[in-house]
C-alpha cells in the first residue's frame, strides 16, 4: 500500500495462497471449502501468527511495516476471537496498531461488539471492497473504523463521469468522518495521479507491486524515486 502523502510504503496486505504439488492455488478455489469446514478459524490464527512474525522480522531490518489481515465472518463467529487475537499480539510485544483487520461490509453489524472490542484494544479495522455491499451510511459513524478500501470496480472505471463523482464523494465523506481511504486495483499512472488529486490516502495494485513473497518486496520499503516518477 503506497502512501500518496509521502510516497512511501507503510503497510502491506497478507494474501493467502496454497502451494500445492500442482502449483499455486488462489483463494477463490479453496476459501469456500475452508469456511464450510470451519478450517478457516484455525488457519486464520496461523495467518495472524505469521503476520506478527513477519512484522518482527522487518523491524529487525529497520522497517516498521503494518500488515493487513483479511478476516472471514466465520472467524468472528468464534466466541474467543477477540481474546485470542489480542493475546497473540500482546505476547509478541509489537505495537497493536501494526496489525490491521479487513472485513466486508456484511460483517459489520453482526459483529459490532467484537469489532468495538478490537478497536478499544488498539487494533485498526478497515472495510474491504467498500461500495459493493449494502451498508447504511449511518454505520460509518457508529462503527469504530480506521478506514475503508474502495473496491476495484470503482477504480477500473473511475474515468467514467458517474463513477468519478461517486469516487470523489466517497473520499470526501471519508475525510469528514476522519477515515483513511485506500484505493484497490490501481494499475495505471493516470489512476494514480487522479487518486492523488482526489486526496486519496493510499493505493495498492499491480502498478505498485504484484503479490509476492516477503523477501521479494523488502526493497520497496525504502524506495521513493520510482513512485515520484510515477506520480509527477
TL;DR of this structure?
The protein has helices at 31-36, 39-60, 73-76, 81-92, 112-120, 137-142, 152-156, 161-176, 189-197, 214-217, 225-231; strands at residues 2-3, 11-14, 18-20, 23-25, 66-70, 99-103, 124-130, 147-150, 180-183, 202-203.
Structure description:
The protein has 232 residues and is an alpha/beta fold. It has one domain: TIM Barrel (Alpha-Beta Barrel), CATH 3.20.20.450. Helices cover 43% and strands 17% of the residues. It has 11 helices and 10 strands. The protein has helices at 31-36, 39-60, 73-76, 81-92, 112-120, 137-142, 152-156, 161-176, 189-197, 214-217, 225-231, and strands at residues 2-3, 11-14, 18-20, 23-25, 66-70, 99-103, 124-130, 147-150, 180-183, 202-203. The strands form 2 sheets. Strands 1-10-9-8-7-6-5-2 form an 8-stranded mixed beta sheet. A two-stranded antiparallel sheet has the order 3-4. α2 (39-60) packs parallel to α4 (81-92). The two termini are 18 Å apart.
Could you list the spans in which at least 5 consecutive residues all have pLDDT below 50? none
| Coarse shape | globular
* DSSP E strands, number: 10
> How many structural domains in the coordinates?
1
Task: Bin the strand percentage.
Answer: 15-25%
Instruction: List the total number of helices.
Output: 11
Could you please say which CATH topology applies here? TIM Barrel
Order of helices and strands: EEEEHHEHHEHEHEHHEHEHH
Second rung of CATH, namely the architecture: Alpha-Beta Barrel
Name a few traits of the molecule.
43% helix; eight-stranded mixed β-sheet; alpha/beta; two-stranded antiparallel ribbon
Amino acid at each position: 500500500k503506497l502512501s500518496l502523502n509521502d510516497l512511501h510504503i507503510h503497510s502491506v496486505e497478507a494474501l493467502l495462497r496454497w502451494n500445492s504439488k500442482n502449483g499455486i492455488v488462489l483463494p477463490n478455489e479453496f476459501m469456500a471449502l475452508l469456511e464450510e469446514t470451519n478450517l478457516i478459524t484455525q488457519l486464520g490464527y496461523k495467518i495472524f501468527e505469521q503476520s506478527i512474525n513477519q512484522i518482527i522480522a522487518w523491524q529487525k531490518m529497520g522497517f516498521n511495516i503494518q500488515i493487513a489481515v483479511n478476516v472471514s465472518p466465520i472467524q468472528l463467529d468464534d466466541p474467543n476471537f477477540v481474546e485470542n487475537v489480542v493475546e497473540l499480539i500482546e505476547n509478541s510485544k509489537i505495537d497493536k496498531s501494526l496489525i490491521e483487520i479487513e472485513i466486508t461490509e456484511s460483517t459489520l453489524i453482526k459483529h459490532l461488539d467484537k469489532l468495538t472490542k478490537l478497536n478499544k484494544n488498539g487494533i485498526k479495522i478497515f472495510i474491504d471492497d467498500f461500495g459493493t455491499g449494502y451498508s447504511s451510511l449511518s454505520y460509518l459513524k457508529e462503527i469504530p473504523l480506521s478506514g475503508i478500501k474502495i473496491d476495484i470496480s470503482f477504480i477500473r472505471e473511475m474515468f467514467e463521469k458517474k463513477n468519478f463523482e461517486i469516487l470523489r464523494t466517497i473520499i470526501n465523506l471519508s475525510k469528514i468522518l476522519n477515515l483513511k481511504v485506500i484505493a484497490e486495483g490501481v494499475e495505471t499512472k493516470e489512476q494514480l495521479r487522479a487518486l492523488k488529486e482526489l486526496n486519496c490516502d493510499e493505493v495498492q495494485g499491480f502498478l505498485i507491486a504484484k503479490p509476492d513473497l516477503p523477501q521479494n518486496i523488502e526493497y520497496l520499503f525504502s524506495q521513493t524515486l520510482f513512485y515520484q516518477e510515477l506520480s509527477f
